[in-house]
Design brief:
This protein has 566 residues and is α/β, with parallel strands linked by helices. Among the domains are: 235 residues, nicotinate phosphoribosyltransferase (Alpha-Beta Barrel), CATH 3.20.140; 144 residues, no CATH class. It has 19 helices and 25 strands. The longest helix is centred in the first third of the chain and has 25 residues. It is elongated and about 90 Å long.
Length: 566
C-alpha cells in the first residue's frame, strides 16, 4: 500500500469515527469524575468488566463486534479545548477550575485493555473486555465503550443468524440504509452485517470506507418512468460477435413474440413500458443486466381513485419481457445476470421463474439460462427465510433491509460495564435479582473443547490461579447454583483474552473486515448444531472454577447485610 493509499484509509476511519470522542458519553460520567477528583482518588486504580447477561434473538450465542472501534477510541482519547469550554458552561459553577485542567491532560496511556478476539462467539457473563487503569479514566470510558460494542455485536449476531438460516449456497445482500437509525446506524449496520456473513451492501459509502462489495439493481420507479419503446432515444447495442451496432428493441420484440407462444403468456398482457425500461437498462448495463420483474401484477386489480380505473398487467409481463431482453442480449454476445422479485408469494414466484428459465434454456439450447440468478426482497426477516426453506424456494440471493439493520426482533443487546476491583481489592455488586450480581475481581476466561473439536464450556478463573491444563479433570461450577457442577476433561483449551491496549498503543495486529468475517465462520463451526439451531437451542454452559466460586460466595455473604426481625 502506498503512503497516499495508507493516508486515505486513515482518513476514512477518521471520518467515520469523528463522533466517537470523550464527550460521546453520559453526563454522570463527568460528574462522577469530578466527585472522584474531589475525593482525591486520582491515584486509585480499578478494573471493569464489559459483558452481557442474555443472548439476543432467543438464541444461545452472540458474535462479539466493535473491538477495533474501541481501540481507535482509546488512541484518540483526549479532551479538546472546545470540549473543556463546553463542560465549563454545562457543569455547575461550583466546579473548581483546576478540575478542567486535570481533564485536559487525561489520556488512555495508563489503561490496559484485555479482550476476546473480534468476531468470536461469546456467551453471557463472560467479559468481552476487561479494562484496567486509573479509576477516573476507566470510569470515563464506560458509555463510549458500551455504545461501540452493543450495536456492533447485536448487528453481527443478527447477520450471522440470517446466514445460518439462508445456508452457505445463497447470497445475502444488505439493503437497509434507507430504513436504518440514521447515517451512523446505516454505516454500522452495513459493516457488521458484512462481518456477520452478508456478501455485500447497497450502501456506497460503506463500500468505500470498509471495502465491502456493493450491489444493487433498480427500483420500480425506473420501470414506471417508461411508457413505450418509441420514447427510447438510444435503441442500439454493439454486437460482440461482429462489432456492429444492432437495434435491441427490434430483437427483443421478435423474441417476445416467440416466447409468448412458448410460455403461454399473451403479448397483450405484457407491458410495453416495462419492456422499454428493461431494454433501456440492458443497453446501459449489458454485462450486468438484472431486472425487477414484479412491477405489474395481473392477479390483482389496482384501483386508481374514486373512478376505480383498473391497471391490468402481470408477473407474466415481467418474466416475458425479461426473457425477451435476455435472449436478445445473448444474440449479441452478452449474458444477463438475473431477476429480482420484490413482492408476492416469493416461494411460488421464484419456482415459476426457475421453471421458465429452465424451459427457455432447453428450448433454445442455452444451458446458462437455466441458472439465472433469482433475487428476492420485500421485508424479509429470519423467520421468512426458514419458511421459504420449508417451501423449497428457488431463490439464489436475498436482499434484506429493515429487519436486519434495525434488529427489529430485539433492538438492544444490553451489555453492561461493571466495577470488579479497586486498588487490588475485589468488588461485588449485589441485587435481589440474581442475574444482576457481578463476579468480583480480575478474571481470565478459557474455552474448553472436546475430542470432537466442539466447544464444551467456558471457564472463568481468578487471574491469580494457574491456568487450566488440557486432558486433566477440571471441576466446573455454575456461578450461582451450588448443585450445578461437573468434571470436564477437555482435549484442548483456548485462553480467550489477549492484551490489546497497553502503554498508549494497540498491542495486536488488527485484522481487516474479511479476516474478522472468516473468524466468525470459524468460531461458529466450533459450536454444536443444537446450540445454533433456530428452535429451542441448547444453552451453552459458562462456569467458574472452584476457587472463584468459593471466593465469590464468601464475598457475597460478607457484603450482604444481616436483617433484623422485630
Amino acid at each position: 500500500m502506498s503512503v497516499d493509499e495508507s493516508n486515505n484509509v486513515h482518513t476514512r476511519l477518521q471520518v467515520h469515527n469523528c463522533v466517537v470522542q470523550p464527550l460521546l458519553t453520559d453526563l454522570y460520567q463527568i460528574t462522577m469524575a469530578y466527585a472522584y477528583w474531589k475525593s482525591e482518588k486520582t491515584s486509585d486504580t480499578a478494573v471493569f468488566d464489559l459483558f452481557f447477561r442474555q443472548n439476543p434473538f432467543q438464541g444461545e450465542f452472540t458474535i462479539f463486534g466493535g473491538l477495533e472501534e474501541c481501540l481507535r477510541f482509546l488512541e484518540n482519547f483526549s479532551y479538546s479545548d472546545s470540549d473543556i469550554e463546553y463542560l465549563k458552561t454545562t457543569l455547575p459553577p461550583t466546579i473548581e477550575q483546576s478540575f478542567f485542567g486535570y481533564l485536559k491532560e487525561l489520556t488512555a496511556k495508563d489503561v490496559k485493555l484485555y479482550a476476546i478476539d473480534e468476531g468470536s462467539v461469546v456467551f453471557p457473563r463472560v467479559p468481552l473486555i476487561r479494562v484496567e487503569g486509573p479509576l477516573i479514566v476507566v470510569q470515563l470510558l464506560e458509555t463510549t465503550l458500551l455504545t461501540l460494542v452493543n450495536f456492533s455485536s447485536l448487528m453481527a449476531t443478527n447477520a450471522a443468524r440470517y446466514r445460518m438460516a439462508a445456508g452457505d449456497n445463497v447470497s445475502l445482500l444488505e439493503f437497509g440504509l434507507r430504513r436504518a437509525q440514521g447515517p451512523d446506524g446505516g454505516l454500522s449496520a452495513s459493516k457488521y452485517a458484512y462481518i456477520g456473513g452478508f456478501d455485500g451492501t447497497s450502501n456506497l459509502l460503506a463500500g468505500k470506507m470498509f471495502n465491502i462489495p456493493v450491489k444493487g439493481t433498480h427500483a420500480h420507479a425506473y420501470i414506471t418512468s417508461f411508457s413505450n419503446p418509441s420514447e427510447l432515444k438510444n435503441k442500439t447495442l454493439i454486437n460482440l460477435n461482429n462489432g456492429k451496432e444492432q437495434d435491441l428493441i427490434d430483437l427483443t420484440l421478435s423474441w417476445r413474440t416467440t416466447l409468448s407462444n412458448l410460455l403461454h403468456i399473451s403479448e397483450s398482457q405484457a407491458s410495453d413500458g416495462e419492456l422499454a425500461a428493461l431494454v433501456s437498462f440492458a443497453i446501459a448495463f449489458p454485462e450486468g443486466f438484472v431486472a425487477l420483474i414484479d412491477t405489474y401484477d395481473v392477479n390483482k386489480w389496482h384501483f386508481l381513485g374514486p373512478k376505480e380505473l383498473p391497471v391490468i398487467s402481470s408477473f407474466g409481463s415481467g418474466i416475458l419481457n425479461f426473457c425477451a431482453v435476455a435472449l436478445a442480449l445473448n444474440d449479441l454476445g452478452y449474458k444477463a445476470i438475473g431477476v429480482r422479485i420484490d413482492s408476492g408469494d416469493l416461494a411460488y414466484l421464484s419456482n415459476k421463474s426457475r421453471e421458465t428459465f429452465v424451459k427457455v434454456a432447453n428450448e433454445f439450447n442455452i444451458p446458462w439460462f437455466a441458472n439465472l440468478t433469482i433475487i428476492a426482497s420485500n421485508d424479509i426477516n429470519e423467520e421468512t427465510i426458514w419458511s421459504l426453506n420449508d417451501q423449497k424456494h428457488s431463490i439464489d440471493c436475498f436482499g434484506i433491509g429493515t429487519h436486519l439493520v434495525t434488529c427489529q426482533r430485539q433492538p438492544a443487546l444490553g451489555c453492561v460495564y461493571k466495577l470488579v476491583e479497586v486498588n487490588g481489592t475485589p468488588r461485588i455488586k449485589l441485587s435481589q435479582d440474581g442475574s444482576k450480581i457481578t463476579m468480583p475481581g480480575k478474571k481470565d476466561a478459557f474455552r474448553l473443547y472436546g475430542a470432537d473439536g466442539f466447544a464444551l464450556i467456558d471457564l472463568l478463573k481468578k487471574s491469580v490461579e494457574d491456568p487450566p491444563v488440557a486432558k486433566t479433570k477440571l471441576l466446573c461450577r455454575h456461578p450461582f447454583d451450588q448443585k450445578k457442577r461437573a468434571f470436564v476433561v477437555p482435549s484442548t483449551i483456548k485462553p480467550l483474552y489477549k492484551i490489546y491496549w497497553e502503554n498508549g498503543h494497540i498491542m495486536q495486529r488488527l485484522p481487516d473486515l474479511s479476516e474478522v468475517r472468516e473468524h466468525v465462520k470459524e468460531s461458529l463451526r466450533s459450536l454444536r448444531p443444537d446450540i445454533k439451531r433456530n428452535l429451542n437451542p441448547t444453552p451453552y454452559k459458562v462456569s467458574v472454577s472452584d476457587d472463584l466460586y468459593e471466593f465469590m460466595h464468601e464475598l457475597w455473604m460478607r457484603n450482604t447485610p444481616i436483617g433484623e426481625l422485630s
